[in-house]
Hints:
The chain has 256 residues and is of the alpha/beta class. It has helices at residues 16-30, 47-53, 80-85, 96-100, 106-118, 131-135, 139-150, 180-198, 200-205, 216-223, 240-255, and strands spanning 5-9, 37-41, 59-63, 90-93, 122-127, 162-166, 208-210, 230-233. It is built from eleven helices and eight strands.
Amino acid sequence: xxxxxxxxxxxxxxxxxxxxxxxxxxxxxxxxxxxxxxxxxxxxxxxxxxxxxxxxxxxxxxxxxxxxxxxxxxxxxxxxxxxxxxxxxxxxxxxxxxxxxxxxxxxxxxxxxxxxxxxxxxxxxxxxxxxxxxxxxxxxxxxxxxxxxxxxxxxxxxxxxxxxxxxxxxxxxxxxxxxxxxxxxxxxxxxxxxxxxxxxxxxxxxxxxxxxxxxxxxxxxxxxxxxxxxxxxxxxxxxxxxxxxxxxxxxxxxxx
Length: 256
């Protein structure tokens, strides 16, 4: 049985004081739940701080992005080695904001995926279509191309380090959410893609998260779908009560 994975992506929010308040509250509410994996992705300056504050809990800390080199003259970048040194166990790669705001290509993301796994980091690889692509009926084509290019050169031995997050771009930060059925259709497509590329066992074990305006009001319905294995949560993860409600309502659904 796949263990649900819930990750809070803080994006460029939170001061140190705000981060401390949030983490202490989250630690109290969901620090040692069983049968659920929980992670948070603070901004780079607070990674070590978050790791230290969460010692003794089951909550993991991850990076929101990383460079594809381990070191070098790359001003403003953070390497996988530095993420590990800061206490991170995973990293988000290919988030829609990295793709569409900062212009990251599938090829760049692919280099990051392979480097992250090489350095012992788990990867949440984000895929998803824009609104016009969905309206044109191209959702599966876009997701297929992102998976093909993003996982190029990744072999079966690396797959247990990979989680996929389906995040329709049109639903991120907009208040719009794919219906549970719409999300499930794409999640099922992704799982079938993995079955074709890596075999049934890898596909069955693969965790596929949903991301895109996830909140307490819709999380249970989303998690009721057979191929949705957790959530990559943006704005709602900045409030401990909301994030905890998402974790527990959805996890209860999965454990029924």
